[in-house]
Structure formats: structure tokens, C-alpha cells
Amino acid sequence: MHNDLIQIDTYNRQRALELENFIVEAPAGAGKTELLTQRYLKLLARVEAPEEIIALTFTNKAAAEMRNRILMSLEAAENNTLIDAPHKQVTRDLAIKALAHAKNNGWQLLSQPARLRIQTMDALCSSLARQMPLLSRFGGQPIISLDADAHYQAAAQQALAQVASESSLDDIVSTALRFMQNDIEKLTKLLANMLAKRDQWLPLVGEHANITADEIAENVANALAELIEQKLALTLKAIPISIQLQLMPLMRFAASNVQPDHLLQALADWESPLSESVGDLSTWQALAGGLLTKDGTFRKNPNINDGFPAKDKNHPEYDEYKQQFAYLTELIADPQTLDSVRHLPSVDLDLITKDCANIKAFAQLLQLATAHLWTTFQAANEVDFVAIAQSASYALENERGATDLALKLDYKIAHLLVDEFQDTSPTQMRLIEQLTLGWQPDDGRTLFCVGDPMQSIYRFRKADVSLFLQASKFGIGQLPLTPLKLTRNNRSHPQVVRWINTTFKSIFPTADNITQAAISYRTFIATKDASADEGVCVHPLVLDSDEESEQAKLIEARYVADLITTEQKNNPENKIVVLVRSRNHLNDLVSVIRRDYAHIRFQAVEIESLNDRQTVLDALSLTRAMLHRADRVHWLNMLRAPWCGLTLADLHSLAHDNHFATIWQLMQDENRLQMLSSDGQQRLRHMHDILNEAFQHQGRMPLRRWLESTWLKLGGADTLISAGDNRDIQAFFDLVEKTARGFVIDFNQLDTAMQKLFAQPDITANDNLQFLTIHASKGLEFDTVILPALNRKPLNPDSPMMLWEKVPVCNHRALIATPFAKKIKGQVSNYDFLKALETERIDNETARLLYVAATRSIQKLHLVAAVKKSQKDEIKPVAKSLLSLLWPSVEAQFLAATTINAQAQNVLRLQDFTPQLKRLKAPCLPDLLKHTNIQSAYISPDNSDNSASNTLLNIAADTGTLTHLYMEMIANIGLAAWPINRIHACAPAMQLWFKQKGHAAENIDTYVNTVINALCKTVESADCAWLLQASETRQSELSITTIDPLGQPQEHRIDLTFIEQDTKMEKRWIIDYKLTFSEDGADLDLLAEQHRPQLSRYAVLFEHEGLPIQTAVFFLAHGKLVLL
């Protein structure tokens, strides 16, 4: 078999390079990108212009990888680089021919790579929309919104407001509200959710806009009947006529022994074999009820209740019937197929007609909401990805057929390549159909689609793997495609591949099914040589039944942390990944590592929500409290936060006996303050002074600036621990600025937006250990893959108020729509059927998700799961968990595992339950501003003494001093934490600083602008980014004391110094900041020379290191570094 698969793979790879239309299945690790590169190079050697080839993929990363592969292949051919692998000889030969053809035509591809049209689907749609802005309904090019929920909500509200104000639309809104039980919020939410996926239903609404509800009902009934007959056809295969003929007398006998109202009475006159016709549905369901238990398994010992009386010597046939029953059920290999018949609805036209009256009303309401969505988009100059795709589609084809742009593209595009085709959505499939409209198999134009249906895991993004199956079977549009399959895995070692093949063959469905989005398993073979340190390891963690769920999670988290430690120790250079089904499955592991495994550094991309970061939660409490003085909870949170740090005892003394006054009012009660500890009084008075000044400035500056200034003044920056904290807090204030309307924040909108933002990864950690979701890992590979939390239960799917979809039926897609219906025992509604169908698809995708996780592994795969014993001492996986899929393969290891004693493992420890809080030692100003005698560093009071004359002051020295103070702060906190808006937020602090230095109020704004402009120019400069990059040797405002010839101490203050370690030889840098401004910037070299003597004195201080020394002046107002 191995050699056969190798031959098939080799032949199909060669075949895929021929100028025909193909759809290629390439399993994980098959070298799909290499094949695409070869195909592209082959075409490049034949076309008249490189723009005739378009390669489409779904992510910018994948597009960049394909472009780089092609350019590197061309460059290697140009430079005749040695080939490091035999399979790359094909790519080299194709690249040589492509390069020669390009040179003959003067394309200059290596210097003009933009001529290679390799882009994402979204980029292509945007390009099409831009080319025909009027036809595509854009007046200009709007901004693409990544989160359009607010627009959907606004459009839904506007549509309902219009309906409420126009009497001609009363019937629509009354029907919709009656169905939603007069809950306007639910109706608004339903409309908003539907608008987000309008690309799926809007064409259907258009198709049925001008027909009656009765006609819609007839269409739905026909589609439903066709789907049911597809299911019955599968059942007929499982129970063919030959078995039915033997079952007939058996089931007639059973029917004769039950009550008149028993389900089996439908089989009392069963004389003719059942077919796939919907008319036989009730009989099929009766047969299923007679043969199967409620759990869907065959009855092992049918009794009198099932129509089979007990053994009777007077009736020997009773026993014969039971024996015949057992024999026939053994012949039926798949009870699940028969069981599925019990979950099919009847085709009740009257009920469907009633449903369609509601659907018709919703369709009209949705059309109206869509119109309002366009006006909402136009007002905001934003659109979502759906709007871009729809506009591109309209640019290619309108009511009259193909547009001029479509005809123009048809002339220009000769070859279309689509990567990751298994992730195609119906809208994207429509785009491909429009781009290839009119193409014929032998006209010289080709369509090449490649992907792995076993890796289709993006249904939540509207990807539909059934489109892959449809294209393989029926082609795309009128264009037939030849299916090819690759069978090699060039990634994983043999033991890993063998385990994957053996395990997933039983996990995946036995056959492809378009309707159920089911993909059968495709076996592949390993091409890597075996190694000693490879394979799949199962780690069963079996716990007693009385263990708490949280204990189980902690035990598993510690086990995984120990496993990571072992892997890193044994193979320090290997890349390790921890993959989980859901982000929250990593929460316990991350907490345990941060608490007890400080040596483990990891990168976690989009794993930790901003809502889970304490620094952000503290800032959120500050925001809520300052905007709502009666918000008692967040005021107490704010006083508990590190910048104030009141103890629980002091908080109780402050607020326990007065529930009517606000916390702010209580803070001003001197008698109440005396009840606090001396430390608490000091902290609270400090907090009071800062907030009091802040409230005096409320409404006088932008909200973000007001809040961030207060946060900085409180010492918020001092509570940050890592550079990641800096980026997180800036992301929070950015979000505040985005969601604010003047001085008002919609906190519901802010909370929703925060749920979609994630903490930044640790940029100081290398990528040898990563924590990812399985979805995020697709396309990546790692030496070692660890899959923990396999026994976690997934979230229960929602029950939407309406199910409306175009389901695949044969070679077309038919409409079935139904509103929500309550579950009635013993009945299957159309809603139940569609929901069950969606559940089947989700279950099938879950199997593919597990496959994607396993196939990321190169060398090792670790499977970790914690399972609690039942009260009966049984070991079973959680239903719908990933472990439940693996159970047939791993059950023996779990049954043989030793039960873990949580107490012996010391799992329950005090620090596990005590929050790790940070508390500033004493209320104080930010350290860098202490010595400047500022009473309020970031909020300026109204009173100041401006009696001193500015003429007596050294203005240049003061502006320079303040600029140096902020440069030190920027260097210490990190450049990333100082965007332009944060610098502007410090203006009040700067104003106060100059006031306390005695400068006249009318001149202060000029001085502040000088400092702000210099700092803004600095943080935006490339020179500053290089100077302040992460370095353990970097020191800001370094003070060195020496003894002069007279024996007196002399202090030297160096603005910035560090050792450059990225060169062959280490070098000591000494930088001096200067605020000097040159009008044209041309004489900066001359200005720098004036400071050479000073920097030379600094250089002497470091001569003992024996390192080369480079001195330089950094001109802050220009953002320029000048070397001396």
C-alpha cells in the first residue's frame, strides 16, 4: 500500500502542473505551498503578462509566504544557488524557464515584484470595488471596519423606528413582535445578528421578495422533502431490500403483540420494501423505533413491550423470532444511520405555511434594516467585509448580466489559483464563479483549487467544506474540475503519522456527505526517516470522584507545566506549542506558570483577554468611578487598587455604616477619616487631593486625556510590571477614546469591545514555546505539540430565534427557513431538524479540529486529560469533548492509570487562593517628578504665583530639564508605552512645572509646546527607536561621581549610555540629549561639535572597560542622532 500511495502522489503532482482545471486535495504537511509555487512558475513561463495569473488565499500571511516562495525561487535560479533537497529540482527547472521568459519580455519581476498578483480574497474584492465605484455602490473608498457590531445595532434600531412610525408597515412589525413575544430588545438583537451574515440570506430574500408566503412554503417543503429523501437513501443502503424482506414478517409479528396506539402499528401491514421516498418516512421511523433503544443501539433482548413475548413452550416461534431479530440486527452494520431517521421532521405544508408568514415579515424587515445599514456605513465612512464582497460581486455582475469590468477581467485573467479552498464561503464561491464565467475546458484558461477538506475548521467564519465536495463532484459554475489527491506527509515522523492514520480513520465519518459537511478520512504516508525520540504519548490523569473541578484543572495545569519543563530540558532547541480548543482552557496553566514556574517564558497570541489583566481592570474601575460618583463598587475598587492600596479594614471603616452617601462624600468627612489607620488616612488624603484637582478639570479637556492624566498622577505607570502591561494599558485608553462620545461612555459598548481585545504577548520571550488555540495554529508546525484540557466540555450552542440557510442538495442549494419552535416531546419540528443538522456539522468539524491539532506535530505529540471517576467508580470522558473522540484509542491507558491523590500532590495551597496584588509602598508622585517640587504632576490647579519676572529665569535650561525628565521616563517605561496622545496628555503637568518655576502664565503654553513638539518628534524618529530598544545594559540619567584635582567631588550626569552587542565587537555608546533647534537642520553636525569636549570627558569615565567608545548627540527637536 505504501508504494501504491507514493506512486499515486508522484503521478498527481506531475499531473497538477498540466494546463487543465484541477481541484487538489493536499493533506497536512503535503507541501501544498510548494505545489502552488510550481504551478505558478509553470504558468509564468507561458503567459503574455504576469498579471494574467491571479493567486488567491485567505490570509495576508499566506499570501506573503506564497509571494516569497516564488520570488526566492526566481532569485535562486538567477544566482544558481545550490539545491538543498531533491524535490526542489522541479521548482528550480520551472523557475529557470519562468525567469528566461520574463527576461525575454522585459518584466523585471525581481525588481518589480508587485506585478505578481498574489492576494487575499478580501484584497481582490476591495480592488474590484475600487475599479467601479459607482456600480459597486461606493462613492469613494471607505474604511473597512473589523468590528461593525455598533453599525448593525444602529441599523436595526433605525429600521424598527421607521416601521413604528409608518402605518403601512404595521403588519410587519406586529407579526415580528408577536413572534418575539413583544420583546423589542430581542427583536433588535435578532436583526443585528442577521445583518452580520446578510450575505447568506439576502440573495434568498431577493429570490422570494415578489412571491407569497404560500409560494415560499411550497419551495421550503420541496427542499425539505429532498433533504429527507437524501437521508432515507443512506438508510436504504444500510438496510437494503434483502434485509427488509426478512424483517417484514418479524415486525408484523411484533406489531400484533402491542397496544393499538404503539408506534409499531405502522408496521402491521408492512408488505412492500421501503424506499427513499418521503412518503415512507413514518414507516422508516416505526422500524427504527422497533429495532433500536432510546440510546440508538440495537435491542439486545426485546421483550413483550417491544412486541416479543417471553419464551413459551406452547409457542416455539416466539424464541425463533427473537433469534431472527438478533441475527438481522447483526447484519445491519450502522445503527446510527437508522437512528437518524427518528430525528427527521414530517413535511407538513400547513405548518410550514404558518412559519413562512413570520419569515415573510422578517424578510421585509431585514431588507429595510439592510437599507439603513448602508446609510449607517455612509455616515461613518466605514464598511464591513460583507459589504466589500457584495460590492465586488455587483461590480462583476448586475441584473443585466456581466458588467464591463467583468468582460475586461475576462480578457485579462487567464489563470486563477485558489489556495486553502476548503475554507471558501458561499460568497467567495460566488466570486470565483463570476471570475470564471464563460470559461471552457479547452480555451487555454485554467482554474486550480487546492486545499485539505480534513482541515476545514472555520465554519464560524462561514467557511463551508461542502463547497469543496460540490466542486470536486460537479465543478464550479459550468467549469468541470479534475480531482487529484496527494498522499505524502513531509512534516511528521513515521510513528506520529501511523498513530494519526489509525486513530482518525475511526473518528472521521465513514463517507463524504455534502449535506452534513462530512469528510471521510484520507490516509497519508510519512516521508521522513524514523528517529529514536518520536511518537505519541498519552498522559491519563485519573482523579477520585470527590475531587473538585477546580482541583482537577490545577492538577492538569501543574502536570503540563512539568511536562514543558522536561521537554525544554531534554531538547532546548526544539519548538514547543501548547494547543487548546478554547482560549479559557489555558487560564489555569498561565496562572500556575506565572505563580510557580517563573523559568517558563512563553508567547501567547490572542489568548489572554484584556478583561483578565489586573492593570486594565484597575484602569476600568478608575474610569467608571470618575464618570459616575455613585458607582460604589468601582469607587471601592479604585481605593483598593495599588495606587491607593487601602486595606480591607480601612475600606470597611470608611463605608460600612453609610449606604446613602457616595464614597467621594465619605472621603471628605474628616471625622470618618479619623476611624482609619494612620497609613490609610495618609493614602486616602493623597488620593483625595489628586481626584479633587481632577474633578476641577472635568470637561475642560478630552476625556481620554483627563482619565490618563489622572491615572499617571496616581502613579498608575509605577504599578506596571512588564512592557506588555504598558501596551495593554495603552490599548485600554485607545478603546476609551474610540468609544467615547464627548465626555460620555457607553459602558456596555466598552465592555463588548474589551472582550474582543487581547493582552499583548511577551515580546522578550522567544518563540520556542507558544500557547495558541488550535484555530490559530493552522498552517504552523512544531517539534513538540502538547494538547491539554482534552476532557473540557465545549460551550453549548445557542438556539437562535430563526434558522435560515441554503442547504446543499445534490448540485444546487435549496432554501429551508424556520423560526424558533419549542421542543415538544415525541415530535420533530423543522427547527429541531435544522438545529440537529447544524449539530452534525459542528461535530464533524470538531473531529477535523482535533486532526489539525495532531498534524502540527513534527516529532512528538502529547495528549493530556484529567478525568474524574464517577460515583460508581467508572471512567468516562465528558460528552462532546475532544477526549470523547479519542476514547476508543486511549481508553485502555486511562483504565490502567493510577488514581491521583490531590492532597499528596499539595495542590490546595494558600497562594493558590490568595490574589497576588501589588500595592505601592506609600502614596507619592511618580519618582521622576519628585525632585521638581510638583504638588500635582499631571493635573494643573488654577492658582499659581506668577509674580516672578520671566526675564530673570533661564528658560532654555528649564525647558531642557523638563524634556530630560520625560526622556528618562520614556526610556524607563518603554517607547511603546508613549504614543503621541500620551505625550499631549502630560500638558497639564508641564504647565504646573513651569508655574512652580515662576514663569509667567502667558508664556507657559509656548514653553510647553516646545517640550511637547520635541518629545513628539523624538518618539516618532527611527533614531530614537534604535536608541531605546530593549537592552540590559541601557542606563538613563546615569550619575557618576569623581574627585577633581582639588579633592572635591564632581558629579557627571549622562543622559543615555549602553553597550551595543549586535556587532562583532561590543561598543560603549554615550549619548547626550540637546533641545537645540536648527531651522533647516543642515548645521546639526556643527552644533554637535560644540559638545565634543563634554562627551570626551564622559568617555574617560568608561575607559576602564576596555571597549571602543562611540559618543553622539541626539537633537530632540529634530529626532536626529549625530555621531562624534
Q: End-to-end span in angstroms?
A: 72 Å
- How much beta, percentage-wise? 5-15%
Q: What is the CATH top level name of the largest domain?
A: Alpha Beta
| C-alpha-based Rg, rounded | 36 Å
**Strand order of the biggest β-sheet:** 15-18-14-19-22-13-23
Unreliable residue runs: 907-916, 924-953
In this structure, how is the largest beta sheet organized? 7 strands, parallel
| Mean pLDDT rating | 84
What is the CATH architecture annotation of the largest domain? 3-Layer(aba) Sandwich
Helix-residue proportion: 40-55%
**Helical element count?**
42
Q: Give the CATH H-level superfamily of the largest domain.
A: P-loop containing nucleotide triphosphate hydrolases
Strands, total number: 28
Structural shape = globular
Structural class: alpha/beta
The overall number of domains is 7
CATH level-3 fold name of the largest domain: Rossmann fold
Describe the protein's architecture and organization.
The protein folds into 7 domains: 2-139 and 388-490, Rossmann fold, CATH 3.40.50; 146-217 and 349-383, no CATH class; 240-331, no CATH class; 535-607 and 766-900, P-loop containing nucleotide triphosphate hydrolases (Rossmann fold); 632-755, no CATH class; 927-1020; 1027-1123, Lambda Exonuclease, Chain A (Alpha-Beta Complex). The strands form 8 sheets. It has a 7-stranded parallel β-sheet, with helices on both faces. A 6-stranded parallel β-sheet has the order 3-2-8-9-1-10, sandwiched between helices. Helix content is 48%, strand content 12%.
